[in-house]
C-alpha cells in the first residue's frame, strides 16, 4: 500500500476539470486508488465521488493506492495533483 498526503493548491480546489484529469489518470492503473478528506473517502476512478468530497484550495487530502502497480499509480496521481 502506498499513501501520501498532499495539499490542494489550485485556487478553485478539485472542481470538475482537475477532478476529471485525476480520474482519467487513475483509470490507467489496476490498483485501487482512494482519496480521503475529513474522514470521507472516494474512489479516484469515479468523478462524482471526488466531486462529492468538495475539496477546496488549501485543504489536505490523503491518497492511497493498493494493488499490483501501486507505486506507479501513487506517483502518477501525485504528479497530476501537483500540476493543478
Topology:
Blueprint: E1 2-7, H1 16-26, E2 32-37, E3 40-43, H2 47-52, E4 60-66, H3 70-82
Antiparallel strand pairs: 1-4, 2-3, 2-4
Helix pairs in contact: 1-3
Would you give an account of this structure?
It is a single chain. The chain is α+β, with helices and mostly antiparallel strands and 84 residues long. It is 36% helix and 27% strand. It has a 4-stranded antiparallel beta sheet with strand order 1-4-2-3. A hairpin with a 2-residue loop joins strand 2 (32-37) and strand 3. The protein starts with a strand and ends with a helix. The mean pLDDT is 96.
How are helices and strands ordered from N to C? EHEEHEH
- Quaternary arrangement of the chains shown? single chain
Shape category: globular
Report the C-alpha radius of gyration, rounded.
11 Å
User: Helix- and strand-based class?
Assistant: alpha+beta
Biggest sheet strand order reads 1-4-2-3
User: Could you say what the CATH topology is called?
Assistant: Histidine-containing Protein, Chain: A
CATH architecture: 2-Layer Sandwich
Number of domain modules: 1
Number of helices: 3
Q: What helical percentage do the residues reach?
A: 25-40%
Count of β-strands: 4
| CATH top level label | Alpha Beta
The biggest sheet, with number of strands, parallel, antiparallel or mixed sense and barrel status, is: 4 strands, antiparallel
Low-confidence runs of at least 5 consecutive residues: none
The CATH homologous superfamily corresponds to HPr-like
Ends apart, CA distance between termini: 25 Å
The pLDDT mean sits at 96
Strand content: 25-35%
